[in-house]
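Lab channel / #folding
Pinned by the channel admin:
"Please post every new chain as: sequence first, then the structure tokens as a reply. Keep commentary short and put observations after the output so the thread stays searchable."

First post following the new format, from NK:
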Amino acid sequence: MTTIVLFLTFVILLLLNVPIAITLGLSSLAALMVENIDFIVVPMNVYAATSKFVLLAIPFFILGGNIMERAGISSRLIQLAEAFVGHLKGGMAMVVVLVATFFAAISGSGPATVAALGMILIPAMAKTGYSKEFSSALMATSGAIGVIIPPSITFVVYGSIAGASIGTLFVAGLAPGILMGLGMAVVALLVGRKLNLKTLEKASTKMRWKAFREAFWGLLMPVIILGGIYGGIFTPTEAAAVSAVYGLIVGIFVYKSITMKDLYGLLIDSTSQTAVVMLITATASLFAWVITVSGIGEAISTMFIDVTGGSTIIFFIIVNIILIIAGAFLDSTSALYIFTPLFLPVAMALGIDLVHLGVVMIVNLAIGLVTPPVGVNLYVACGIGEVNLSKISKAAMPLIIMALIVLLIVTYIPEVSLFLTTLMG
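Reply from TO:
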């Protein structure tokens, strides 16, 4: 009965377009009423879920990303990419992918990457000969790399749930993120072969060096974060705080594009973004707790073990199918809190590395950012590119197919994710 009430309430509220945080919370409360469990567990559970030290990394990474975006790093990254590949046929598409990958490493967020870069890059791609629909779709799919390339807020959330090392997860996300970027670039170049594309004038060595110097301080941020974590200088949470302070120093003293007056707005924006993430974290953790105490989670895990028959291939097929579907309806934080407790015991029983499982889950959820009907990146790109959802979804199909190919590679060749962690371990 609890299972029916929990999931039926969840589905009905979701179909009524109730915000996901409220949906998770109300469906959990409905299930608690059926189980006759005292509501005192709600504040206790919410506090336990949101008071983890590791989650302090989220507001600091959000603040650091906002600071670097306000400092003008996005325009400098665009100039750098244009200087090196803008003269090639399809070069502007490569600029989109390169800049999105670089900016993803700073912002840690897919929608933020699309919003920050789309205003400049979508019109720029359209001017070179690409359609507005494909330009918007490429921006949306390239922006999804933001949840894979470190520092990724999504990896922080997964690490806090699974108890996996966030530093190791960051390193494990590098190769899949780069592979995803290469896949997007290949598709864009294949599409561009049929078009009469314009190119930029080839930049001189002096211009390239100038563009590199301008973007250097922004590119240094992910190096400082990963280098500091693996050099034993600071923890991932401390690294997040360092990234915010570093961003301020660069914005105020190097680029001189941030004033003290800007700090209030930056703090307000970062606080509101953090509040959204933490509200979802609180209600999603309550939903996951209900699944656990009601015995639903154990029953599902047992069923998984029986269905897989000890086969990791079958397990990952099930994981990928579930997350591809879930990613089309849920944000990544909610999906991680709901499904990680279900997949984790099965993965441990099958001897699957928890870091590898995390990377597979997050690549799935990155694809979910660009799959309708609730692909957040698609909606952001639609607004910027002034195209409707059906047209951008059609244009995104070859990009999504390439993303699925990358997902299969990451899923069934664990070394893609783990070889760097092995080298650095």
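NK: Residues 40-424 form one domain.
TO: also worth noting, Residues 162 and 386 are 40 Å apart (CA to CA).
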